[in-house]
Design goal:
Largest sheet of chain B: none
Distance between the termini of chain B: 30 Å
Structural class of chain B: mainly alpha
Radius of gyration of chain A: 26 Å
Structural class of chain A: mainly alpha
Number of helices of chain B: 2
Order of helices and strands of chain B: HH
Distance between the termini of chain A: 50 Å
CATH class of chain A: Mainly Alpha
Strand order of the largest sheet of chain A: 1-2
Number of helices of chain A: 28
Shape of chain B: elongated
CATH superfamily of chain A: Sodium/glucose cotransporter
Radius of gyration of chain B: 21 Å
Oligomer: heterodimer
Strand content of chain A: under 5%
Shape of chain A: globular
Strand content of chain B: under 5%
Number of strands of chain B: 0
Largest interface: A-B, 87 and 57 residues
Helix content of chain A: over 70%
Order of helices and strands of chain A: HHHHHHHHHHHHHHHHHHHEEHHHHHHHHH
CATH topology of chain A: Sodium/glucose cotransporter
Largest sheet of chain A: 2 strands, antiparallel
């Protein structure tokens, strides 16, 4: 029987009722004309205060409560906390935009949205089948602690701690960036202030109560996430098809979307736009090949245009627009080439992404298929090996409860993803029917609003200069496009606040879990393991809290430098986690012959191979080292699929290291 | 609501049990099922690239639910690991 203690469920029911009441109140406020900023800001403030209050009530200084929530969390509650821990800013905010933009099966080169959907859900099966019960049985407090005990080696624990810190840090910066985006959008504050405001909420939770506070906060955040996504899906479904069943509404809309996509694909204006973009890409290729010469030519051209504009009395804005040309602005050739490469990527995306949900005439096996399979592999194994997800297996009282909590978590995640994929279909119908084909000076009202808001979700460039929007002219900002759903679908702006509250809950809950993982690895597995192995429990908790605050501030500082793509870095974190931890956990748990040399070699080799592959294929590194993608890409796989190489190498070295003769090991 | 707790209420963490066992049959079958379902579904989507409705209904909607059923089946082990603890 599953244990259902009464007060946690009262807390969750209370949060659900509170959220519904708050939404109804704000719907009424919106109806009577209260400004949208006030309505949205209210969601932000109430959310953060609510999470902070739970954190304060759950404060603790008991080590087992602080590190593993007393190992007393029931399967459903732990499942909710795991789901909230898992549903990050990237997957909650980004999945709908990703499916909308990249389609289901990709463009023949890169993986489509289905690879993310399957990888992110299937990984929980692996976690449940392979690791959850075994980890719970060990009664450890961190993953490095588990590995250190299994192999009776301080070196294994030390290395695993650094692996956990690396994987979690990459993930954490992306989450804090997401928090900053949502908080600034809701509050109207600058991005940097938004980051630090929301960070206060994170810290109040995890700093005071550790895993105990984070668990209960994540339970409430899970309610907010699920309610916001399901309610939004139902509202959009009702608006488009007249009923609240979002999957059925999406299936009803698909045939019309496909018909419209076929019309657009054969439209002469669309084909002209694509030709213009291809020509522009060829020009950029020439410039990138000869950047110094190209810069001089372009500077002279810009100088002439600026002089002519000034002579003709052009406005300051027009002159500034001319001077925004990177060849005029950038003094460094490297940065100029970077700007041209970024522009080329945007143009390539505009012509290669599918109009509907698949690229036409995409038959046979191509690099896109291998990338899809590779990505599914990395995401599944990464999900089963992410330290901040694995550590939740320690918080249930029994191994069977740990396994059951994985099923609860997967159930909740599946509900959110089913709504997200259906929303992608419904949004596509708005883009194809209302935006494509409209005149630039008579755009739909939502398009104007999405373009002009501080956090732009849409940009349009009329490449063929015909004054009409073609599909290739549109650029949607996938990472956070879902935040514009209420405007696109013309439902009440209260849903913007509700959705942003869900997005904020997703980012905050993941950030909480990651912060705890990093600070515990630093304090428990690195400092106390080596410098003060006999430190009293209270001292351990206090140092963990201090490190948690330091890590949070550092991550916020990194996030304010605005990493390029949330999704890219999150996906890289999966590959790193899969390569570093999956081989050592699998062999360590199920193979008696695995020893500490094998464990060390498995972790080092997997981490090195996947880190190398991600780094060497990063545009910045390629530019610095004058490398070309064709020389550094293996088997045509994207850098986010680095785990495809890291995991087999880790397994191989783990096996070989364990089989080394004793004399050689010594 | 949970009450704040202090250090005096508890002692150090419990001693650990790290058993190395062979991969259980149910886990092995579950992993095989996961691979077959994933590769089969993606393969179906690639073999029929124009069947967008099938991609949506089967791969994007039904397969995650089947994963959930598979994970649930994985927990229905007659020899529960509770006994081991």
């Amino acid at each position: 029987m599953m244990r259902l203690k009464s007060w946690p469920w009262r807390l969750l029911l209370l949060s659900f009722a509170g959220l519904v009441l708050l939404t109804l109140l704000l719907l009424f406020a919106d109806f009577v004309g209260v400004p949208k900023g006030v309505v949205n800001g209210f969601f932000l403030v109430v959310s953060i205060i609510g999470y902070a209050v739970i954190g304060m009530f759950c404060r603790t200084a008991i080590p087992e409560e602080y590190f593993v929530a007393g190992r007393s969390i029931s399967a459903p509650m732990n499942g909710m906390a795991t789901a909230a821990d898992w549903l990050s800013a990237a997957s909650f905010i980004g999945l709908t935009g990703l499916l909308l933009s990249d389609g289901f099966v990709g463009d023949g080169q890169h993986p489509g949205g289905l690879a993310y959907l399957l990888g992110w859900t299937g990984g929980f099966c692996l976690l449940g089948f392979l690791f959850a019960a075994k980890l719970n049985l060990s009664q450890s407090i961190t993953i490095p602690d588990f590995l250190g005990r299994r192999f009776d080696s301080a070196a294994v624990r030390w290395l695993a701690a650094w692996g956990a810190i690396l994987c979690s840090s990459v993930y954490l910066v992306a989450q804090i960036y997401g928090i900053g985006l949502v908080a600034s959008m809701l509050s109207g504050l600058t991005f940097e202030l938004g980051v630090f405001l929301a960070l206060g909420g994170v810290l109040l939770c995890s700093f005071l109560g550790g895993m105990r506070a984070v668990t209960w906060t994540q339970g409430v955040q899970c309610v907010v996430i699920v309610v916001s996504m399901v309610v939004l899906g139902m509202a959009v479904s009702f608006k488009t098809q007249g009923h609240p069943f979002v999957t059925i509404a999406a299936a009803q809309s698909l045939p019309q979307i496909q018909e419209r996509a076929k019309q657009i694909e054969t439209d002469p204006a669309e084909l002209t736009t694509r030709d213009v973009i291809s020509l522009r890409m060829s020009n950029l290729d020439v410039k990138i090949a000869e950047p110094v010469y190209a810069r001089e030519v372009e500077r002279q051209a810009v100088a002439r245009q600026v002089a002519r504009a000034k002579a003709e009395g052009a406005s300051l804005r027009e002159i500034q627009k001319l001077e925004a040309n990177p060849a005029w602005r950038e003094t460094s050739v490297d940065r100029l080439v970077g700007a041209w490469q970024a522009e080329r990527e945007v143009l390539a995306e505009a012509i290669y992404r599918p109009v509907g949900f698949q690229v036409p005439l995409l038959n046979g096996w191509n690099p896109g298929w291998f990338n899809s399979l590779g990505l599914v592999f990395c995401l599944m194994l990464g999900t089963a090996a992410l330290p901040h997800i694995l550590v939740r297996s320690y918080t249930t009282p029994t191994p069977a409860e740990a396994e059951r909590s994985v099923v609860w978590a997967l159930g909740i995640i599946v509900v959110v993803y089913l709504c997200a994929s259906s929303l992608a279909v419904l949004l596509k119908s708005f883009v194809l029917t209302e935006l494509v084909g409209s005149h630039l000076d008579q755009l739909p009202d939502w398009a104007d609003r999405l373009k002009l808001r501080k956090l732009a979700l849409l940009s349009i460039q009329d490449h063929n200069q015909d004054g009409i929007v073609q599909f290739a002219d549109i650029r949607l900002f996938n990472d956070y496009l879902v935040l514009g759903v209420p405007e696109i679908t013309h439902i009440s702006s209260v849903f913007t606040g509700l959705l942003a509250a869900g997005a904020l809950a997703a980012a905050l809950s993941t950030a909480d879990g990651l912060l705890l993982t990093i600070s515990n690895a630093l304090a428990q597995d690195l400092y106390f393991q080596t410098a003060e192995p006999n430190a009293p429990p209270l001292r351990r908790v206090m140092l963990s809290k201090i490190l948690l605050m330091v890590v949070a501030l550092l991550a916020a500082w990194f996030a304010t430098n605005r990493p390029v793509s949330i999704l890219f870095w999150v996906t890289c974190a999966f590959s790193l986690a899969a390569s570093t931890f999956f081989p050592v956990l699998l062999l360590g748990i199920y193979w008696r012959g695995m020893n500490r040399v094998g464990a060390l070699l498995a972790m080092v080799s997997g981490l090195v191979v996947s880190s190398y592959y991600i780094a060497v294929n990063h545009p910045w590194v390629q530019m610095r080292l004058h490398l070309h993608a064709s020389d550094t890409v293996w088997l045509g796989l994207d850098p986010v699929c680095a785990g495809v190489f890291g995991v087999p190498v880790g397994l191989l070295f783990g096996y070989l290291g364990s089989k080394l003769p004793e004399t050689l090991k010594n | 609501m949970p009450q704040p707790s202090t250090a005096s209420e508890s002692e150090a963490p419990q001693p650990s049990t790290i058993e190395v066992t062979a991969l259980p049959r149910r886990a092995l079958l579950g992993v095989a099922g996961l691979v077959a379902l994933t590769v089969g579904s993606l393969g179906l989507a690639w073999l029929l690239p124009d069947m967008t409705l099938l991609h949506f209904l089967w791969v994007a909607q039904a397969v995650p639910v089947l994963y959930l059923l598979l994970a649930w089946w994985g927990t229905q082990n007659p020899h529960s690991t509770d006994d081991a603890s």
